[in-house]
Write the structure tokens for this entry.
Amino acid sequence: MDIPSLTIARVREGLLSRRFSAAELAAEALRYAQAENPKTNAYLHFSPERALAAAKRVDEQIARGEDPGPLAGVPVAVKDVILTKGVRTTCGSKLLANYIPPYDATAVVRIEQAGGVIVGKTNCDEFAMGSSTENSAFGPVRNPVAPDRVPGGSSGGSAAAVAQGTAVVALGSDTGGSIRQPASFCGVVGVTPTYGRVSRYGLTAFASSLDHIGPFSRSVKDSATLLRVIAGRDPRDSTSADAPVPDYTALLDRNVKGLKLGLPREYLRELMSETGDLLSRGVGVLQSLGCQIREISLPSTNYAIACYYIICTAEASSNLARYDGVRYTFRSEMSDTLSDMYRNTRGEGFGAECKRRIMLGTYVLSAGYYDAYYLKAQKVRALIARDFANAFQEVDAIVAPVSPFPAFKLGEKVDDPLAMYLSDIYTITGDLAGIPCMSVPCGNTAGGLPVGMQILTRHFDETTMFRLADAFEEAQRG
Amino acid sequence: MSSSAPPVATLEAIARYEPVIGLEVHVQLATATKIFCGCPTSFGAPPNTNVCPVCLGLPGALPVLSREAVELAIKGALALDCRINPQSRFARKNYFYPDLPKGYQISQYDEPLGEHGYVDIVVDGAARRIGVTRVHMEDDAGKSIHDGFRDSDRYSYVDLNRSGTPLIEIVSDPDMRTSDEAYAYLTELKQVLQFVEVSTCDMEKGHLRCDANVSVRIKGAEKFGTKVEVKNLNSFRFLKLALDYEIARQVAVIESGGKVEQETRLYNPDLGETAGMRSKEHAHDYRYFPEPDLVPLRIGENWLAEVRAGMPELPARKRTRFIGEYGLREYDAEVLTATRAVSEYYETVAKASGDPKTAANWVMGDLMGLLKAEGKEIAESPVSPENLGELVKLIAKGELSGKLAKEVFPKMFSTGERAGVIVEREGLRQISDTGALEKIIADVIAGNPKQVEQYRGGKTTVINFLVGQAMRATRGQANVALVTDLFKQKLG
């Protein structure tokens, strides 16, 4: 069984033709992932019991002649900010190092209902705050393509697991680019669906109005399949949308002729030349498929980073308040008073980046500063969303870079938070606007580093995004 | 330190000042489940059993607003004549406390559910209208338990059963000028909210909690003085005592040349004093911002109309109607609308009997007397309102004398039997049959010639003796008025 070459379709075919059972596949996938993990540190822990139980259910369904579901037997990795009942969920934080949730995230429930086999939980920046996975309390992840480089972040573990071939698909979370940027750095597909498309129930909150769960995979089709499984209204999440979920894979027609694509000029200025060249080449491919390319403007882009770091830190400062040492987190025992207990627990428990964002967020929400920062940022956010709405009057999709540069070296930006923040420059706008966006591989640099192309579409129009990405992927292959 | 009691002003000094009082009242909504999850709100369950990921504030859990809670909140706001905002919004109020599992309370801030209401009160015969600034929804915190455990000297315990219980906070305008007005406002508020069944308002269970904002100013001054928030007012009596103390304290501070500090003070019922909380405990910047996990609450015309249609008649309106429709006196109408249960009981008796005034006397007199003697609520009355209505109807139709009715009622109360059943069994039906009575009257006249003589001689009061004889002959069942008339006819 060649685990790294598996796709959802190949797993299904193997199961239905009885070449292997789901239980055999799960055991082999776990063995392979555990053996490969020291190379990348992509997984924080594995969930063999849960995986084998899920696989057994699939085998029983097949034996009874039932449809085992669209993800039957597929090894899935899940970012460790997404809760798994009975399986440790740390959020990459010392505070939750021993936290075992009593319930499952809705996305996890849906994956298992669809026959998916969750093999383990992937490493990430602490509470999903970071762009390199170096902010994990449990050590950084190495990029499987170039082990001295970061896999991107914050969902670096999920991207690395899929790139390494230890999982067929993975779940990540994206607040400012945490799916698309690591997908780009590791050369895989990563999708941030429309805000509200996938329930956030059971996703540890970083910035609630920006947090998304989304898929990683080695092909566009597999991400489309996974998204369809996890998408749809969830009564447990008031912000989840009651919009119909199309059968994305059935709509991948490989015919994108006549699609109007916009290239935002504001996104092309800071590009490193090699990344820019690869993007230009990718745009050329799209043109050759019959797409019409035009330059567009998203004039509020310049304010996006400031806007994003005000809103996300404000929400984070509130969302992280519950990790206080009172109930389920790590508690510093050397405290005489309640306020000392809070201070010591949080002082010892949180890493530097979380502390930085808690302080920023507390500051921007403080009395007297709220209007100048938070309220203004919300207005800018509305302008950014309006930019996109205006653009989508003219074009069907927007094509853009994912990151100004390919994977950087471990340690290169750790001490320069601002440089790290700037690596989100092309991804945060999609989150701020709540529109679907994804990264699809667009070739490698001369040094062999992958570069992704970003595709953004209208709210709830993941279909056009997938169609374009799938056609592009096919053309690249050919 | 605040252990030494500050001086309290003289009555003369206090008389020169005008207090300004506003109340913030938290009321627990009478829902079966919590505001953002499906956990029960029942009181008295073992600690930390009525809980789930949402009300425990576990990672990844999200709030989902309860429709029932919104409807009760709307009812409460409507009962105070508030305008219901077509869109309101939840906001996070951030602070750290061990019984606040999320690290923030989900409340409403700049876009509350309802605004611009009022409560009418009467104090010493003077009617006053107290404005209600706003009514907003929020979730309650859990409970910290600092005493009663073996290791309570080192640890506090947290019970999160109450966490997520739905509350409304009702903020009054600074319209009250005396502690009596504050007392009357809270009394009226409680009555109205109980009436519309928005809350049990049980203060002992913490279903009604009150904080006061108090300031004083020289009479005639336009500007408000510096306000002090007084907390821990856990009974109506404490509210009044704390306000009186705080007013006197503030006047004393000003009279002695000092300045009232803007602060939060706790009322200590044992000492009868308020004391400032250490500044650390209340120096909060709550960092409110819109709750991103909830969508704005939109209350459309249809929904509002639906809730409005389910509202009972409010006590003030009911009082007016009872006076107009049933001819009740103001005081009686007040008593009979004190609670929804009493008003509904009375109205059933009034309708069943066809004699609302007599019905009022029976409900307020004999019924309430016996209920009180047995420590029962009207809902537990062994006499159903239909049965009491039947009793009153028998009196009204002349089938039972008022005197015998007083004997029948306690029997109804102890057995739960219908009035008619007891009257029939015990043969108490009033004799109003002229034919039957004429025979008896003839016998009395024949047997008492001397008195008949006196009557005819002009001493008409003797008729009472004759009527008494007739009543005795009928064991009290004769219709007194009829008997009297018959005597007059025969002797006249």
Q: What stands out?
A: Chain B has 17 helices and 16 strands. The radius of gyration of chain B is 31 Å.
